[in-house]
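Worked example (supplementary).
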Amino acid sequence: EAGVAQSPRYKIIEKRQSVAFWCNPISGHATLYWYQQILGQGPKLLIQFQNNGVVDDSQLPKDRFSAERLKGVDSTLKIQPAKLEDSAVYLCASSVNNYEQYFGPGTRLTVT
Amino acid sequence: SQQGEEDPQALSIQEGENATMNCSYKTSINNLQWYRQNSGRGLVHLILIRSNEREKHSGRLRVTLDTSKKSSSLLITASRAADTASYFCATDGNQFYFGTGTSLTVIP
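After joint prediction of all chains, the assembly is encoded as:
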């Protein structure tokens, strides 16, 4: 089966600019997660969707980050405006049963 | 702050030796999972242990869970160079948290 797809793989922007990431989960996976992984740390959950509803967004900086999952399939994560500390790898994962998560390759964001 | 803390932060062993890494967490959980991350394959799920289980095996992996101590351990037996990676525990309670990770280096 095809894995979790993410794009772009790399993005370099200047602070205060906007950026968007896209994720296509594994077909049939109802749960979708976005994580932020800063170099040397474990992934931090930003938002969890069940179909197109939000289950947990308690760690999402809502003043600058937003995410949506239209039609319960693809999802986009947006940062507006970006700060230097947003430099990280953004990981998307999906699961069918809220247990084992399948991760995409990630998007490496550099904010200069 | 992250829920799980792995120990040690870094571990270097010879091929064929066993590797043990530990995870401690703070709140009650439904289950605990271990993931591996390397540059080649990204983050990959290894094993899940439920809160009512004490030990679980999968191939060369052995996981234990002690809910009274809020801790788990991952044992990799007969390590291989391909096991070189970062290993993370992840807890599923009210929220989903990854730990800080253990960086394992297996020397051929």
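Two points are worth noting when inspecting this output. Chain A is about 0% helix and 50% strand. Chain A touches chain B at residues 33, 35, 41-45, 48, 56, 58-59, 91, 93, 98-106 (CB under 8 Å).
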